[in-house]
Design a protein that fits this description.
binds adenosine-5'-diphosphate; four-stranded antiparallel sheet; 10 helices; alpha/beta; binds magnesium ion; Rossmann fold; about 240 residues; five-stranded parallel sheet
Length: about 240
């Protein structure tokens, strides 16, 4: 499902080069549910950006659901993301002037889901809201929902088109512990029901323990530690010596 080979990513900051990722090899199988852990600054978000085609690697190869991302141009990557990736972020990013149902409707791929009429579309969204315990909240604005409820709406929005891979970047980072645990269980259940591959960044070891597979990014990233400018300079000179 996901195969990473020889992946390297660096950022250029004020003239110096910061190496962020150096992942010789990593795989995630179809339907696997993985908690991606590691300290702040260890490259977790950057890795998700690369997997979703938002960012490009400097070297190496990412194959996602049979698609080699390096072969796609920008508009092909946009289409890849629309059909293959569901993305859940820490701060839900719901549109404040739209109701829960409308926030989901704008993400809906009607053709793919075979939704012919407005009526069947409405029923379809309401069924999803029911699955996440929000049946009676469809017409509420985000501001009328708790943070946990807003994240449920965002989860439906990310999953409703049944993308083969769901990425979530600290999706419960701004929620209290109890809400975080119930939302994580919900994500696991929904992904399992849909046969989706799930990759969730979290730095909460309790939440990570709910996943069948846990991966500390430092075990696969040779630069698996927060980077200081000094360390970056050392790395660069070592690379230069090797070259
Ligand atoms: P994590 O999600 O594990 O906290 P990130 O992937 O967000 O880590 O960031 C990894 C490192 O890359 C950090 O040192 C961060 O400052 C740096 N970084 C991320 N994005 C950029 C960017 N666009 N330009 C420069 N440095 C960046
Ligand atoms: Mg991050």
């Amino acid at each position: 499902m996901l195969t990473i080979t020889g992946l390297k990513k660096q950022f250029r900051v004020q003239g110096s080069v910061l190496p962020i990722l150096d992942v010789p090899s990593w795989q995630v199988n179809q339907g696997e549910q993985v908690a991606l852990t590691g300290p702040s600054g260890s490259g977790k978000s950057t890795l998700l950006h690369l997997i979703s085609g938002i960012a490009l690697p400097d070297e190496g190869c990412l194959e996602v659901n049979g698609v080699e991302l390096g072969r796609l141009n920008e508009s092909e990557r946009d289409r890849f993301r629309a059909s293959f990736i569901g993305y859940v972020l820490q701060d839900f990013h719901l549109l404040p002037s739209l109701t829960a149902r409308q926030n989901i409707a704008i993400a809906l791929n009607r053709k793919r889901l075979g939704l012919a009429s407005g009526k069947s579309e409405k029923r379809f969204i309401l069924e999803w809201l029911d699955r996440v315990g929000l049946a009676d909240r469809a017409d509420h604005l985000p501001g009328q929902l708790s943070r946990g409820q807003q994240q449920r709406v965002a989860i439906v929005r990310a999953l409703i088109n049944q993308p083969p891979i769901v990425l979530a970047d600290e999706p419960t980072g701004s929620l209290d512990a109890e809400t975080a645990a119930s939302l994580t269980s919900l994500l696991l259940e929904l992904a399992q029901a849909g046969g989706q591959t799930l990759l969730v960044v979290t730095h909460d070891t309790g939440l990570a323990s709910l996943f069948p597979r846990r991966q500390d990014i430092r075990e696969v990233n040779r630069i698996g530690r927060p980077i200081s400018p000094r360390a970056a300079a050392d790395y660069a000179s070592r690379e230069a010596t090797l070259a």
